[in-house]
Methionyl-tRNA formyltransferase (Arthrobacter pullicola), 309 residues
Amino acid sequence: MRVLFAGTPAVAVPSLNALLDAGFDVVGALTRPDAPLGRKRVLTPSPVAARAAELGLPVIKADKIDDDAVAAIAALAPDAAAIVAYGALIPERALTIPRHGWINLHFSLLPAWRGAAPVQHSVIAGDEITGASTFLLEKGLDTGPVFGQLTETVDPGLTSGELLERLSHSGAVLLAQTLAAIDAGRAVPVPQSGDVTLAPKLTIEDGRMDWKQPALAIRRRINGVTPEPGAWTTWDGARFKIGAATPRPDVTDLAPGQVRLGSGAGASALVGTGSTALELQLVQPAGKKMMPGPDWARGLGQREDVVFE
């Protein structure tokens, strides 16, 4: 079966590799255009574009599926298109090109968390079980019938980035299995059923901490927005980033946002919430690199006036 692969970020690369390993005739890759990265803003191919180039595959780079992109897709004559985090809508005129349609790997148990940031929202919500789904892409937002699903237990200590990395590999297997079933004529997509939740793309403001919230909710948000868009608060009028924090249910006497610093060998940085405290494991003050919370605490000594806003 001739397969067009559509994807952009690093989490899509395992699926491209899995399709090749499974013996599919991957005829090309559709991805977003090169983007400026780093301090020097150097134009850099997407991870999928880079991997496709290594494999010698034709690459279509498009921000949106316009007339030129539609013509390029049609010229590859795919029997099916596999899509993983491409990052743009597929118009109806492109959906009809492959005879088997577009099969999307989505990192949630649909219809839960339809949208651009399913894993992040799942972590923030405190889901104990998440997973991935393969479904037939249609005009609506992640509304198509489902071919298959897998489940994954959510470790409360995992960030969304770590969980997405795990799902990218297990989901790649699911995608290859789904396409094999379609090729063999055994795949029967089932309409979605259950409660619908939405997972829109996160903004910088989604990463701002509200210290009046309970410790568990704040920790989930820190994990959910890590690595992107990142967790932050303000201190001394500047943005202060938080990379990781762990619950300290034994500390109950700190007001929301109040910071207690320990020094010496047992240095620590505790911050009050709407319930019990959190211990800051990784922090990044303005103008500095990410560092362990205890190192930051040692640098401030015995200051008692540190309050996050």
Q: What stands out?
A: DSSP finds eight helices and 15 strands in the chain. Helices lie at 13-21, 47-55, 67-76, 92-95, 118-125, 160-183, 215-224, 293-300. The mean pLDDT is 96.
